[in-house]
Specification:
It contains 5 helices and 15 strands. It has about 350 residues and is of the alpha+beta class. The strands form 3 sheets. The chain has an 8-stranded antiparallel beta barrel with strand order 5-6-7-9-10-11-12-15. It has a 4-stranded mixed sheet with strand order 1-2-3-4, with helices on one face. A hairpin with a 2-residue loop joins strand 2 and strand 3. Helix 2 crosses helix 3. About 25% of the residues have low confidence.
Length: about 350
């Protein structure tokens, strides 16, 4: 019965992730220099964008990258927004200037520029607000009326006049090159070129309920592919031997070596995964004459929750929490004495460095 509940909960987590309003394909990188440390942090910027779009457009595995930078120099604050496509090529850039005390207003203007860039067609309730009379605290006109312009050159000319309406994709001539044709003149964002990316991760893990010790320390390494919000991972996990003493003399040692397949759905910094685990439980004894070794099948179904903290453009830390339902109970005997039996449920906690090759 507990196994059925675990499967039902896993399915519910995946359905909840799939039911999110948008499958984010944008990755946010936010920075402030020393002159802008007093400005709102990344979480507040994300909240401001979320409040405008009514969904989170960002994911650690997004194909496009949104660079948001705030700098302070000579008492003036300046925000720069840069949009990179899936190949790391600059497809648009915009700057917003503010006074020394306008940090929060500058971040609001930056959030507005990001929102218009990523989704120029707001939800119906926002469209209604846009047709209503502006309030006294309306957003800066230069930001609201001048969405980010996408061009072929890394930095558009500052003399280019702003256009009202949705984000326009235009072709700017480059020296010695033929300008490319744009088939998305009325699109709100650059065309998404979603593609599969290679993932490599490795790190320590603590396994609970798979050996006699309350917590068995081990390591885990894996490779996989990410495609949009979907992830498929193959991983290997091995624990160090843990011991249990026999009342009749001798010590039994148990360790787990297993492979797992994980199918995940990710949104923002969180991912939910379904797991299939297959491996072996290896046991051996010491301080016993004619000691033998043994192996037993280990199989389990489970679910995993991941949280990712971005460190660099392609590097992050992944924190994992797993719940497992063993399908093949394991019992360890020494001299006909049962030293240990696997519990009904198992779990693991882990942290890993995650490298993504785009």
């Amino acid at each position: 019965m507990s196994g059925r509940w675990l499967i039902v909960c896993s399915a519910a987590a995946v359905v909840a992730l799939l039911s999110t309003p948008a499958f984010a394909t944008n990755r946010l990188i936010y920075s402030r220099d020393r002159g802008a440390r007093q400005c709102p942090d990344e979480a507040q910027l994300r909240e401001a964008v979320h409040a405008r779009l009514h969904y989170d457009p960002f994911s650690p595995w997004g194909d496009r990258t949104v660079l948001a930078e705030i700098s302070g120099d000579d008492g003036k604050l300046r925000a720069r927004l840069t949009l990179l496509d899936a190949n790391g090529v600059v497809s648009g850039r915009r700057e917003v200037a503010g006074g020394s005390g306008d940090c929060e207003e500058l971040v609001k203007a930056l959030a507005l520029a990001i929102s218009i860039t990523l989704d120029p067609m707001p939800p119906a309730e926002n469209a209604t607000d846009a047709n209503s009379q502006p309030s006294a605290k309306a957003e800066p006109a230069d930001v609201a009326a001048t969405p980010l312009t996408l061009v072929d050159t890394p930095a558009p000319s500052p003399e280019t006049p702003a256009q009202d309406g949705p984000l326009q994709a235009s072709a700017a001539p480059s020296q010695g090159r033929k300008s490319r044709e744009s088939n998305s003149a009325s699109l709100g964002v650059a065309r998404s070129t979603t593609r599969a990316n290679l993932l490599v991760r490795a790190g320590p893990v603590v396994m609970l309920g798979v050996t006699p010790s309350p917590g068995a320390l081990g390591g885990r390494a894996g490779v996989g592919l990410s495609y949009g919000v979907l992830q498929f991972l193959g991983e290997m996990t091995a624990t160090t031997p843990t011991s249990v003493a026999s009342e009749l003399g001798g010590v039994g040692h148990v360790q787990l070596t297993a492979g797992s397949m994980a199918s995940c759905v990710a949104t923002s910094f969180v991912a939910g995964c379904g797991l299939l685990v297959l491996g072996r439980t290896h046991s051996f004894a010491t301080d016993v004459e004619n000691a033998t070794t043994g192996n037993a099948l280990f199989s389990a179904l489970g679910a995993r929750i991941e949280a990712t903290a971005a460190l660099e453009r392609n590097l992050g830390l992944v924190f994992t929490l797993e719940g497992l339902k063993p399908l093949s109970p394991v019992r360890i005997f020494l001299r006909d004495e049962r030293l240990w039996s696997s519990p009904a449920l198992a779990a693991s906690l882990g942290i890993a460095a995650n490298l993504q090759f785009r």
